[in-house]
Structure to design on (47 residues):
């Protein structure tokens, strides 16, 4: 599969689009953030 055909989502914190990664294969439906940095930013902003 070409990289352009991979599914993508928009990060809940920074709003940037990010694409599917092999390490997210089994949990893609739960992935909300593009990186650990954004995941930690969410915790800082929302308590």
């Amino acid at each position: 599969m070409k990289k352009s055909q991979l599914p993508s989502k928009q990060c809940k914190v920074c709003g940037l689009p990010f694409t599917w990664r092999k390490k997210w294969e089994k949990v893609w439906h739960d992935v909300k953030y593009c990186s650990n940095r954004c995941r930690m930013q969410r915790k800082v902003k929302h308590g």
The chain has a mean pLDDT of 90. The helical segments are 36-46.
